[in-house]
Every structure is written in structure tokens, then in C-alpha cells.
Model the fold of this input.
Amino acid sequence: MTEPFLQIRGLRKDYGIVNAVSDVNITVERGEFMTFLGPSGSGKSTTLYILAGFENPTAGDILLNGESLISTPSHKRNIGMVFQRYTLFPHLSVGENIAFPLKVRRWGKAAIDAKVQAMLRLVRLEGFEDRKPAQMSGGQQQRVALARALAYDPPVLLMDEPLSALDKKLREEIQHEIRRIHQETEVTILYVTHDQEEALRLSDRIAVFSKGVIDQIGTGPELYANPATRFVASFIGDSDFVTCEIVSARDGRADLSIGSGGAIAGVPVHGTAVDGGMAALMLRPERLSLSRISTGAGTTGLSARVNDITFLGSSIHVAASAPSGETLSVRLPFGHEAAAGLSRGDTVFIGFDPASAHVFCG
Amino acid sequence: MLLNFERLGAWKWILLVITGLTAAFLILPIVFIAALSFGSSQWLIFPPPSWTLQWYKAFLADPRWLEAAWTSFRIAAVVTVLSVLIGLVASFGLVRGRFIGKEALRALFLTPMILPVVVLAVALYAFFLRIGLNGTTTGFVIAHLVVALPFSILSMTNALEGFDKSIEDAAVLCGAHPLEAKIRVTLPAISHGLFSAAVFSFLTSWDEVVLAIFMASPTLQTLPVKIWTTLRQDLTPVIAAASTLLVIVTIALMLLAALVRKGLKS
Amino acid sequence: MATLTDPGGIAGTVKPRIVRQYNFAQTVPALALILLFFVLPVLALLLRSVLEPQPGFGNYAALLGSTTYLKIFLNTFVVSALVTAVSLAIGFPVAWALAIMPSRLSSVVFAILLLSMWTNLLTRTYAWMVLLQRTGVINKTLMGLGLIDQPLPLVNNLVGVTIGMTYIMLPFIILPLYGVIRRIDPAILQAAALCGATRFQALTRILIPLAAPGMVSGALMVFVMSLGYFVTPALLGGTANMMLAELIAQFVQSLVNWGMGGAAALILLVVTLTLYAVQLRLFGPARMGGH
Done:
């Protein structure tokens, strides 16, 4: 078995008595685009900063090509990084910014000039070498930062929410650029963001962080179809949660009952299931069916009362209350027959396939 | 990493040592003088053979020292009042007025603060000789007023610029006369600026040396002048006592100012 | 009568007045004071420099032509430059440290800085006169440690003046420089580290260039202040290193030579104003008097 390219093992970081990350284990393949996804405070940036060498871990190790990085100071790690804030050197021109890491590595002048031009071409900013950062827009500055980070061909590129300071349209433009540059350079990228859409759009795999631990690592489809925790289910894709009671559980599937409704059998279960215990049933709004009456045995579901119907262009969004009082949203394609004549206060039956739902315990 | 204290490595200690030494360099002389003022050695030997209050007693017993202190105080008091009044009115003009040359005027008002005091001292000395104000309290007050006013104007224009005029306008709309609105609404709101102006004007006059040397006469001396003339002859510890007293007054006033300012601002 | 703020004319008994913009009148008392007791006397003095004892530039010729006076000018510049250089050399690391230290440490240093600034100038100079004298603490400690066997002449010379004036000027470099360094985004230095720069390279290629405007501005201010300084050089310096301010005072008080005194004052004034103009051109309106 070959050495994994980048390995994060058992990483832990405490600030005094406060724990920021614990038990983080990630293996990254060469050339992979891996995203650390999670809300603020989840530990994703801390992990990235330990990789960059700006923080020392309390425990654990980081291995690049089998060699430990922990005791190497930042300036010797040969890693590239793009920050959330524009960190171009304000007193140097664009060209001088990109040349800086090369000058520090004592490259010859001709080699530096050639590389600077190549980098400017890569980020599509040819001709900008004499501009000063202050004369450039945020998007352009981040592209220069990217060029500077890649100028010395680092094996790993770290990106800490680089686009959060930009407006939506610019963000999409640069996401596209990042994807293109990733394909052209085949550099391994570790990307931090709180935006699930950005993560899904850019990454090969996503590590979902929550409260300092990783809930799950997987591709977008894996995380969507088989979320391991309630948090992952709610963070990737839209989700509805209904409180339920576990009747029995076996072989990874559980039978549940919802309030006054009937029994639901065979739902994939995650966490430690306790017979008679409470759990959360997770449903995807776009996989729910809506009808006026229960279509007989064979359709699992629950009845609910319609609160609101919203037209959102390509879909119709129906908000309904379950008997327990919890809100469910159902997303129907525009023109769907079930939505015809529907109005507030109507009682409807919301159906779903138990096998594609999930229930989370604990 | 250079701006991250924890990650400087060995450099952290170098910076800490330099800063520590500098802090010691800055404070030791002052502490030293205060200590010496209680030492019994006439030649300021340190450590002193024994401790005593004789220099303070000498200071308080000497009518000339006490008179110098009183002169300092009454001149500073008059300067403070005038500086705050003239500065307050001028600040309104500078902040609210609209006339050509306003910025140039503002710069002109600040000039006494930045030009070498000795030039002003000599010029006023010559001028007062001509008009007979030399060695008079009036002359002294005028001289100190010229250098205290910039601080006063700075403090109050600052405070006034931070004040939202629409509050005052609202008071006028409620029926108050414009002057009344100013007194009852604006002045309380900028009171921290007024207080700063007063404190800085007082301290500027209280601590001022160069102008005082030129404005003084054998019968009219402020405390700094008396210290100066005594210093040119010998280094008696009575000066240490007088200096320590000067320092205590200044510190007390600045602490008071900081506390009051905090209280007024909230 | 309807007014801007009283359209209904309700404020009847109060003399109706249109609320006009505050105008020039408010600044008149201050203006009168400055013109009468600042501008006028200084101009008069400068006038005397070209009128006494005879109309013409004889005083200037005497000042700039004589070696004695030229030595004083030179000495003034040298001392000022020396004080500026030393203050900068010490002030930069201290300002840097203050900008990044934990606040419980930096507040102590700031308190000491401010205390030093508020302490009366004479007190501070007197302290050095005592410390640096032949029988003073410094000499006694050095002899006690066996480093020297004769007391060093530390006062009434260049050494004493430099120490005394650096003591006073340090806070004027440290405080503005601290402000400048604090405004530098630490992430820029982190980026420099990742680019491969060692601490030394990051210091010389990034931190110092970014702090340079603060350093130049502080240095200019200290240099200009030192040029015109009177009290400290007079007390801590010897007759061999008289500075310009003391020369002016001497012309006027001891020699009653208004022509020469005025001329020397004008030279000081011109140099000061030129340097301020340079500062203005380089940095825009600098903050005056940083309280």
C-alpha cells in the first residue's frame, strides 16, 4: 500500500481549558480537492492553521509524504496559502508580490521573471505586474494572492474562506477560476468554507466539521444520500426533522412511530438506538409526496395541515405542520397536480419512502 | 509571524528585554528623585545614609518657594479660565462656521504648539519690554495663554465635532433660544472636551519652563523658574522635594482627568 | 416674524433672529490673541534682525560667517540627529513589542510612558543631572562593579545631553510608531512566512518597509523638536556644546543684542518650518500634539 499523500492523525488543539479540535483524522490523496465544511467555531480553520504552522497542536501529527510537518517552522513547510483577508504586500507591485517567495528562495532573475509571467497567465491577469494592490479590486487581489501562493509549486495549497469577502456574482466567477486552476496545476487543495453550495461545487471530498470534531468525510453525493449525523443531514441539502419514537432497531434499520400516526418500518438508523427512546426522523423536502388522502396501505407517511404555499419559479414550496407541531416543507415541481387547488388549512398526507429517510439517535 | 507574539521564538525575548530596559530607563529617574527627596545626604548620595523629611520642611518653611508655588497656581488658574473661554468660542467658530480660510485659521491656532518655544519667549520678552508688561502677572498669563490655547482648541473642536448638531437644533425647535440651547444641551454633551481643555491648559501653564524664564522677574517667579535658577547654582535636595511635589500634582490631575472624562463620557 | 426655526413666529418676546451660520466672529478673540501676542511679536523680532544695529543683513553675515556660531549650528544639528537616531533605534523595537504584547504587559509599559511624559521637564532633567554626576549612582555602580576606576564624565558634555534628550523624546517616537505597527494586518506577515521568508527577511523586506512612514514621520518630529530645545541642553550640556536655543537666549538676556538674537531665531524658525513643510508634503496634515 502506498503512503497516503497527506495524513492528519489524531489532531487535537486546546486553548487552555477550551477545546477547539479533537480527534481529527483525515487522509488526502495527491491532487485532491478537499473541503473542510462547517459553521464558524467548528474547528475547520483551526485545523487549517495547524497545517500552515500558525498553531501548534496539543496532540497528533501531520504527515506529508510520510514525513512529519509538526516540528517544521512555517517558512520551511513549502505550503501555499490564500487567506480570507487580502494579504498582498501593500508596498510591492503585483509582480513583486508574486516574485517575493522566489526571491526568498534565491531564484535567478530570468527564472523569476518567467515564472511571474506564467503565474499571471494562469490567473488571467497578464499585464498587471506593475499595478499596486490598492489599485485592484477584491477579486483581482485574491487572484494575485493565488498566483503568489502557487508560484513556488507547493505540494499543498491551503485556502481559508478566500471568497467570503466578495459578492455573490464575483464569488461564482472565482470559484470557476479555482476549479480551472486546480485542473490545470493538479495541486492538492485544502479549502475551508461555511458555504455548503461552494463546497459541493468545488470539492472532490468534503469533511464536515461540527464542534471541533469531524462528523463525516465523503463526496457530496455520499454526504447527501447517507448522512452519518443529524448535523451533516441538516448542513448538506435541505432537511425536515420530525420527532419520533424508536419501536425497535436491528441491523442498521429501525421501526418507529410518530405521535398519533402509524408505524414506519425499515428506516436507516444512525447513532445508538434505544428501544422506546426518542429520535429525530430526517426527510428531504424534494423526496416527499403530497396527496389529499392516504393512498392506502403501502404508503408510509403522516398527515399534516398546510400552513403556507409559496411559488418559487421552478418549484412550489408547501409548509405544513405535523400533528406534533413541527414544521415540514415539501418541494413540488411547478405544475404538479398535488398542488392544484391546495390552500391554507387543508389537511394533506405527506408520503415518503422509509428506505431513503434517516433517523438519528442520541 | 512577526506580528504574532507567541510565534516569534527567540526574538520574543529580545523584544521583551529591550522593552523592559526601556521601561526601567524611563521610570527609574523619576522614582530616584522621589526617593532622594527623602534622603538625608546633601550631596544626593545614593543610597542615602538615612531618611528624613528635612528637605520638604525646608521647602515648606521657605517663603520664596511657597510664593513661587502660589504664583504658579494663580497664573495657571487664570490661564485655564481664559483658555477654556476663548477656546470654546473659537471652537464653535471653527467647527460650525463657514468662511474662507477656516482651515488656514485652524492651522494658525495650532502653530504655537509646534514652533520652538524659545522663539516665542524671546519675541514676547522684547515686545513686553516695549509695552511695559515684563515681569508682570498679566504678561505671564498672556504668554502661557498663547501656548495653552492650542490644546484647548484641539480638545474642544474634537468634542464639538463628535456632537450631533441636530440635538441642539431639536432644542431650538422645542422653543429654546439658540444660546440657551447651547448652554443647556450642547455644553453638557461636550463637557468631557471642556474638562480636557481645562486640565491641559492648567498643566501646560503649571509645568511651563522656557516662557516662564523670560517672563519672570526676581519678584515674580513660578515654581519651574525657581527650580531653574536654583539648579544653575547647585543641586540641593530641596529641588528634589519641590520636583516630587510638582510631579504629584501633575499625576493627581491627570488621573482625575482620566476618571472624570470616563465618567462624563458614559 | 417667521424665522428658520420658528416659522410660526411663536417665540414672540424673544427677539426674533434668523439662526445664522456661526461665522468668523466667534474666532475673533482667539485670533486677536494669536495675532497680537504671537505673530506680531515674532515678526517684530525678525524685523529687528535686519534693522539692528544697522539696516541690512549684517547679523546674518556675522552668524553664518563666524566659526564660533557655525560650530553651534553644527552642534545643534549633530545632537538632534544623534538623539533622533538613538530614539529611533530604541523606539522601533519597543513600539513593535507594545503592538503585539499581551495587554496586561503593555498597559504597564504605557502607564510608565505616560507617567514619564507628564513629569515635569525640569524634574526629568534634574534627575539626570544627579544620576550622571561624578559622584552619582551611575559612576558609583560602574566603579563598584569594577568596570572603571575613574568616574566617567557623563554630564556637561555630549553624552549627558544625548541621554537626557533621548529620555524625553522616546515617547514621541514610540507612541505614533506603535499606532502604525498596530494597523499592519498580521496576516500579511503570516503570508510572508508561508512564502518562505525567515524572520529576518520578513523584518527587512516587509515589516520595516510597512512601518517606514511612521518611522520617518516620528523621526522628523523628534528632530525638529530637538533643534529648538532649550532647557535640557542648557542644563546637561557644557559650554562646549551649546545649542541654538541657548544661543538665542544668551543674545537676548545676557548680551542684549536683539539683532543677533532675532537673526538666530529666524534661522531656527526657517529650518523648523521647512522641515514641517517636508513632513506635510510627505504625509499630509500630521496630527499635532498627540494627547
In short: The radius of gyration of chain A is 25 Å. DSSP finds eight helices and 20 strands in chain A. The longest strand of chain A covers residues 300-311.
